[in-house]
Design a protein that fits this description.
This is Glycosidase. By secondary structure, the protein is mainly β. The chain has one helix and 27 strands.
């Protein structure tokens, strides 16, 4: 679904890798595996800012009998090599180490964040700010910075992203006073939680956020339950945006028989509407190894977000559109239909919604507000 014609606004070929931060150490040829999953916010002057995840990969990751991987260090970027015989390479996004007993993987690309300034209606690119790229600031981001979500809370822009490292898989906060220049604050969640998103505004005097912690196993719900079990959207609250306490109730669960029965997770930061907090979240079905990723929506109570007022998971709000990526067919590397919503901005009678399309490009959608009334 889309209100006024969806389009791709950033594609891999638009990224100038001669200006990539990885040039500080990596001289070998690289390419953009994907430019996707963008954070979105409106700047003080009215333009929009996309914070695009650029997944940059080596053209030749395998050299001889070794597979190589990009890693950040305080001195610059380096290439680590390990024996090819020690890994399984059956997914374009990562390789798996043999004989570890656990799911220990290495990424085939390195992600950094590229600020792309758009016109107020998100139809044109105004500027690409390579000089303000977001790159690792500490060892907890040694393998990259992924999937930004930007919220305006307490008069400041709050951006959370995923820190990817062998030390921890964490959520990192950066703050800005102008929406453009972001200062790292540090780790705010220390468990594997890829889908944190702060609410656009406080609830009373508290910060609220969507979270989605992952685990190796999940307990089955009672027989006859409408809940399917598995990864779900939880809530947390904080007095300062730094110290978070999980809420004991509330959240959004995958439901049996829906197109989101495999797992659900946060998408865009929740925005306040007359009906309550609007949440655009992703749901995954059980088709294939990866599954189809679609965007659904829910409403939470404006004064008590632990109260789920409405969930619309019978039909998707957004789903992958093959027509959008048809011109990029030679660059597609995943066969599963994927749309992964990560940003939302108000625009009069509609919302501008930013998503990753096919883990490849940035998609803009226009959703009438009347759809949620």
């Amino acid at each position: 679904m889309g209100g006024f014609g969806d389009h791709l606004i950033v594609t891999p070929d638009m990224v100038d890798l001669s200006r990539s931060p990885l040039r500080r150490g990596v001289s070998e040829p690289t390419f953009v595996l994907g430019a996707f999953n963008p954070g979105l916010t409106r700047l003080p002057g009215g333009n929009l800012l996309l914070m695009v995840r650029v997944a940059e990969a080596l053209r030749d990751p395998v050299r001889g009998d070794r597979v190589r991987q990009i890693r950040w260090t305080p001195q610059g970027y380096v290439l680590d090599a390990r024996p090819l015989a020690d890994v399984v390479m059956d997914d374009p996004r990562f390789f798996t180490l043999k004989g570890t007993g656990d799911s220990v993987i290495g990424l085939t690309s390195f992600s950094w964040l590229l600020p792309v300034e758009l016109s107020a209606d998100a139809r044109e690119i105004v500027a690409i700010h390579y000089d303000r790229a977001i790159t690792p600031c500490a060892d907890y981001e040694q393998y990259g910075v992924e999937d930004a979500r930007i919220s305006v809370v307490g008069g400041a822009w709050q951006m959370v992203s995923c820190g990817v490292s062998s030390l921890r898989h964490c959520t990192v906060l950066r703050r800005s006073v102008d929406g453009m220049e972001y200062r790292p604050v540090g780790v705010v969640l220390d468990h594997q939680n890829k889908d944190m998103a702060l609410f656009h505004g406080k609830v009373g005097d508290r910060f609220f956020a969507l979270t989605r912690p992952l685990g190796e196993s999940y307990l089955a719900p009672p027989p006859g339950s409408a809940i399917a079990g598995g990864p779900s959207v939880n809530l947390a609250q904080s007095p300062d945006g730094l110290h978070w306490k999980p809420c004991e109730t509330g959240g959004i669960r995958p439901r049996r028989g829906s197109q989101a029965a495999r797992k659900v997770g946060g998408g865009a930061p929740p925005v306040l509407t007359p009906e309550g907090w609007l949440v655009l979240y992703h749901g995954v079905d059980r088709d294939g190894a990866i599954g189809a990723y679609r965007t659904f929506w829910a409403l939470l109570d404006r004064d008590d977000p632990n109260r789920l007022l409405h969930v619309a998971d019978e039909a998707p709000l957004l789903e992958a559109d093959p027509a959008l990526t048809a011109p990029l067919a030679e660059q597609m590397y995943l066969s599963s239909p994927i749309v992964f919503t990560t940003g939302i901005a108000e625009a009069g009678d509609h919302y501008i919604v930013a998503s990753g399309e096919a883990d490849l490009a940035c998609r803009i959608s226009y959703i009438p507000k009347s759809h949620f009334a």
